[in-house]
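Usage example:
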Amino acid sequence: MSDPTFFARSALLAVPLYLLLVVVLRGTSAILKHAIAVVAALALAVALVLMLPPGSLSYFTTFLLMGSVYAVLTLGLNVQWGYTGLFNIGIAAFFAIGAFTSALVTTVEPTGSMAAFTQQLFGLGAPFWVGLLAAGLASGLLALIVGGPTLRLRGDYLAIATIGIGELVRLVFQNERWLANGPQPLRGLPQPLSCLASSEGCSYLPGFVNAFFEPLSPREYPYIYVAIVAIVLFLVYVGLERAIRSPWGRVLRAVREDEDSAAMSGKNVAAFRMQAFVVGAVIMGIGGSLYAHYVVAIDYGHFDPLYGTFLIWVMLMLGGSGNNRGAVLGALLVWAIWTGASFAIDALRPTLASISPELPQRGPYVRFLLISLLMLFIVLYRPRGVLPEEKVVSLARD
Amino acid sequence: MTEAPTISRGRAFRRAASHALSSRWSLLALLGLLAVLVIVFGALEGIPASRLLGLTVRGILLGGALALGALGITLVFGVLKMANFAHGDYMTTGAYLGLVVMALIPASAPILGLGFGYEFVIALLIVMPLTGLVAYGLDRVTFRRLRKRRAAPIMMAMAALGLAFGVRSIIYMVFGADFTFYYQGGPRPIVELLPGLRVRTDQLFILAAAVVLIFLVYLLLERTKIGKAMRAMADNSDLARISGIATERVVFWTWLISGGLAGAGGMLYALDVQLRPEMGWWLLLPLFAAVILGSIGNVYGALFGAFTMGIVWQVSSAFVNPAYGPAAAFVVMILALLVRPQGLMGRDK
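Running the assembly step on the lines above writes:
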């Protein structure tokens, strides 16, 4: 308790835990549920802050943060593949468009001597939430353009078209300097509420809030951002659950299961596919924005098909496609495996070195192989994932 | 005969019009239009016609290596009804297997004015069946299980995606992420085909080797029993099974041929450009663009598509950054799909 940041960190960590409990807890009355969730989340957060050594706790926080960012992306894919059966293997394109749009909207165009180092199409200097919305909008717009000629075609064609878009978008951000600083990273993305973790505090917030978070230093910023990401993830999750359990969601699954009978029931199949594709892309764009403002400097290399597309597919397939809880769980599980594997490989360095002197520095590819094998295992033996799709989703549960 | 009501005549006219617009000829007309646009814009931008011609020739030479890859994709799609997204990485596998085999056999002096010795040709002949066996072996442990379960084609494509990344990660682990060459800094003899039009002799060899292999595939498909069985499977797999065709045997030969062609295509492409763990993934886009342009599952369509996409890839570099070459092939594919979704050789609707 001697640590001055104790209260601030506990309160911030309680936010994702509370939202998690709200989603997981079932039954009882709504008020009681929220009350239990608040108390339990605070207790859990305090326990975590007290019991874990500071290093592990901040590691846990950044893990939760990145896992939640990927969970947003996985939820986007779940709308497209899980519920509608659209085979999008160009997630990286929507991820990248979201990230770069948010970057351009929130940064300020450099002037003077800095302009020689950084070129960008525009820089609006808008707040974070404007960037977040613009990211979703731009990504949705891209989906509208890509979907037009490809969604009416067979599944494999959409797959190829999306691979193409993924590569094309990455090539553009790699080669077009004027757009977003070409192969060099676009730096200095603002971090929302980062003023809370600085000594000046946020001028637009009341004094007691600033006073409460006063002890936090910029190093503790992930505690703030994890709360923000958790809130966005929660809103996306709740919105999707509502949509999927609505008549609209039922039509999506009808389109996935049997296009012809959906069409015979008078549903405009093409329109529903397009809606699902765009909604999924908007969510991916939002995920891209969340990612960009965490890493602060982005370049084309972040949107490689491995990190930008394949990892997200493994997350959805492991968690359970057609199940939003599964998507979130899968994202956290795979992110745990992905980050855990890098520790394991570090520990195995001497062993790897004894096989071949060059192997230790190629360690990252071992986890690359591991994740591919995981994908194959799921497709071959557990195609429904850890949390399979629920048979009946539209009945009132409470 | 009574006169049809005008409203249905209008509909019939519209149907006939849309039929004509999506015919084989309109697709060819689209490609012709693109060629005209290239020449016009080339003239406006001051790009000499000889440069465009040179790039077209380069495109045809590149098309040979692409054709070998595209043939494999289209054969697997025809027989097994699955989009093999691992095919590009099978090409990478072939290229790197070639590197290993060439290290094991003694190198000779360059032959026939080419930039390489006998060892490359021997390695090519060894790598082809080797890559074919790798492709079949991977089928045994993955796709076969899915076929037995009668899984949806899309699940096969997903398994292929897993294989693509898995194979590439092994190549990264064994060979590292850097690019390399078969002949580091060796001689690269050049020949002048037409006045001002120079190509490397190696590139002529690549095209010649590709043409020979394509001809062998043609013989195999048209003249042998296994080729006939493959065509029967591609046409109607249930009927083929009822007629007593041993489907798993056909599957074996399909992978052996398609993997073998991928291995050769990978080695030939790497001889021209370089070896890189990502080369196969980057080739996937122009390869599928070629296959889809020609009609997926159709062998002759794939050949047409491969040479077209080779030309598109090279000629685009006169106008945009050469890095966009594969993406240019992709854009042409999208345009073609808008006109004729079933591809050049597809059946008319």
